Amino acid sequence: MTQAKLDQETLKKLKSDQLSQLKTQLGVKEDDKSLDYYFDDAIQAVLDYTNRTEMVTGLFVYAKKLATVYFNQQSNEGETQRTEGSVTRSFEVGIPLAIRNSLGRYRLGRFARL
């Protein structure tokens, strides 16, 4: 599958649109910048996982999903499991499997020269 390279203007628009949708989805005020950091971290994690240096159109949706995970885990950083009474909660470390599976088709292979 070939992905067209996007110009900077289009990338900014896509990022802005997805960030706006994310803030609406999570009930965060538009002028609140706290979610911007989670979204930027999610974009970098997606780029690292896919071995890319620039975003392509389809990746923004997965960055938005990952930013939601980061936002929801903001008081649980560093924890992999928590037990409170008889209730045990486990947290996935890194990018959740459902998102990783979807990102698989965007991954670029790495090649080493001999």
Automatic annotation (TrEMBL):
InterPro entries per record: Phage_gp6-like_head-tail, Viral_HT_Connector_Assembly
Gene3D superfamilies, A to Z: 1.10.246.150
Organism: Lapidilactobacillus achengensis
Name of the featured protein: Phage head-tail connector protein
One Pfam family matching this protein: Phage_connect_1
Superkingdom as given in the UniProt entry: Bacteria
